[in-house]
Here is the input.
Amino acid sequence: MTRTARLRVAVLASGRGSNLQSLLDACADVEFPAEIALVLVNVPDAPAIERARAASVPVEVIDHRAFAGRELFDAALDKALHASGIELVCLAGFMRMLTPGFARGWEGRLVNIHPSLLPAFPGLDTHRRALEAGVKLHGCTVHYVIAELDSGPIIAQAAVPVFDADDEDSLAARVLAAEHRLYPRVLRLIADGRVRIAGWRTLIDDVRPLDAALFNPDVDAANR
Ligand code: GRF
Here is the structure.
């Protein structure tokens, strides 16, 4: 599919907004195939708001506490998204569970970034749990959102090593740096129409498959 107009994207965020920033930065290039047409924030003093303003992108604060229930809150999100002609919704540190109805309504047009290599460590505290589990590779995942939390067809993942000296903060920082590289790449793939959903998987057109394995640690380093 070749598009002429840029894909109209909304980013939903609740806090720091560093992933929002990576998407804003990518979309600042007029050649990038997507534009951030709306930022929706549910926490009135979230730093994400200022990031959107600094990039001159429309931002709306929809405080979930003003709504009697999740359905009503999600209906307000849905209305704002449609009013802005949004074609794709990117969750970026959006700390509200979305209702199954909302997820169904945006199915195939709703993606999330999660700080683990799913299906390992869905939910919260992923870095602490990765350290406790003793995994040697950790990372992040961008996936389509379905009603069930932190599941849905995986689009792309980035792996980072876990070092013996790591604590939660050092590991989180390494994963976050990978998130900032991964999310804009995935947005470009989707906007270019190269991602197809095939049941529980996604297929990506025109990628050169890597035939190398990733090793951690670099077991051959001592022999070089
Ligand atoms: C990121 O680690 C993201 O993977 C998770 O929440 C965090 C949001 O960070 N869903 P930020 O607000 O984008 O800086």
User: Anything to note?
Assistant: The domain at 7-204+213-222 is CATH 3.40.50.170 (Rossmann fold). The chain has one domain: 7-204+213-222.
